[in-house]
Design goal:
Layout: H1 6-54, H2 61-78, H3 84-90, H4 93-100, H5 105-119, H6 127-152, H7 157-182, H8 186-207, H9 224-247, H10 266-296
Helix pairs in contact: 1-2, 1-6, 1-7, 1-8, 1-9, 2-5, 2-9, 5-6, 7-8
Amino acid sequence: PPLPPLPHQLLGSALGLLLVFRTNAAYDRFWEARKQWGVVTSECRALAGHAVTFMTPQQALPLLSLTAAFPVVVKSYLRGERDSRRLKALLAPSEVLALDAVVNQPQYVLARLRQLAQAARQVGVSEKEREVLLKSVGVLGECVSTCERIYNTPIPLSYSRHTSRFLIFYASTLPLAIVGALGWATVPVMATLCWALFGILEIGNLIEEPFTAYESQRRPLLPLTEVCRTIRRDVRAIAQYAALAQNYSTPTIARGEPTFELPDGFRQLRAVLATSAAVATEVSEAAKKKATGGQDA
C-alpha cells in the first residue's frame, strides 16, 4: 500500500542537512591538505632561494638536496610507504642510510635542515640570515604537523555510518510514498534520485582521506607526486640561476657607480643598462687578469 508523503517530506530536510554537513566536513579536510602542500611548495622554493643567496650553490648543496627530498619524504610518510629509490637519486648514500634508520623521516629531515642552517655560519652566513633559513624550516614543520592532524583524525565512523543508513532507509521507502502520484514514472525518478544522493555520499567518502584516496584508474586524489617533481625541478633551477645570469652578463648592482637620471623611454633605459653591464664585465675581466698575473708572478 502507498505511504503518506508527509514523513518523507519531514525526513528529507534532515537528510539533506546531514549530507551537506558530511560532504562539507570531508571537503574541508581535502582543501586544508591541498593548502598545506601549497605552503610546502612555496617554502621549499624560498628556502632554496635564500640558501643560494647567502651561500654559493656548492656550499648550499647539502641543504638544497634535503630541501628537494623533503616533499618526497613527507608524501611517503603520509601514504605509509618509503620511496628509497627517489631518495637515493637526491641524497648522499650516508644520508639515505640515516633516513632508513629513523621512524619519523620528516622530522629527521627538518632536524638536519636546522643543523645545516646553523652550520652555515662557518661560511660567513650572518645570524639574521640564519634566522631567515630557520623560519622557513619552521613553516615546513608546521605543515607536517597539520598534515599529521588531518591523517590521524578521520571523520568519526559513527557519523558516516548513520548517514549511510539514513539514506538507505529513505531511498528504500520513498517509492511507496510517490508511486500513487507518479505511477510508472516512479522508476526513472527513483533512479535519478538515488544516483544524485548516493553520489553525494560517495564524494564525501572519497575526499575525506586526501592523502591515500584514489580516483578512477588508480590516480591519486591529490597529485603529490607531481608536486614533488615540481619542487625538485625548481630547487635545481634556483641553484643554477646565478650562474645563468653571469653567463649572459645580466645587469648587476655595483658599489660606486655614478648616479644618473633615468631616461623617459624604455629604449634609452635598456641602452644605459647595456652600457653598465659592459662596464661591469670589463672591470670583472680586468680583475681576473690582474689576479692571474699576480699568481704567475
